[in-house]
Inverse folding.
């Protein structure tokens, strides 16, 4: 693993973090849920950088997605929750969901997004698959149950 951190000149306390990770081939299938903050505080550069990072992530997983070893589900949240309604290996579908289905709104109901991601893993993942949930956001929740 290689890590680099660079302070952003325009905003004090904001850093660009880059992780380069190289792993070995795995035999166990993986069902991965990405829970992504689509609130208005993520608008602009934060969301653009998130989407660019996810494109690169999908590119790195191309072979594993193509052979079905890894499946990805997405939950986007703000005051609403948008989901892919299950897992997919189709990168075009996943990118289309992120660009055209999920909409940015005010309100950050992180708890609701995380619960939807957990539900997707519990109810729709393969029994034999390793289950992974990744949260992407700016950590500024302002709604909860």
């Amino acid at each position: 693993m290689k890590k680099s951190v660079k302070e952003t000149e325009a905003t004090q306390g904001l850093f660009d973090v880059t992780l380069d990770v190289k792993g070995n081939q795995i035999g166990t299938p993986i069902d991965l849920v990405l829970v992504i903050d689509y609130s208005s505080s993520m608008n602009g550069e934060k969301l653009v950088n998130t989407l660019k990072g996810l494109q690169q992530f999908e590119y790195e997983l191309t072979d594993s997605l193509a052979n079905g070893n890894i499946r990805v589900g997405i939950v986007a949240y703000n005051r609403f929750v948008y989901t892919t309604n299950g897992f997919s290996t189709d990168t075009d579908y996943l990118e289309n969901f992120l660009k055209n289905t999920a909409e940015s709104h005010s309100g950050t109901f992180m708890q609701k997004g995380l619960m939807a991601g957990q539900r997707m893993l519990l109810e729709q993942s393969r029994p034999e698959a390793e289950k992974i949930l990744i949260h992407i956001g700016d950590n500024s929740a302002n709604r909860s149950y």
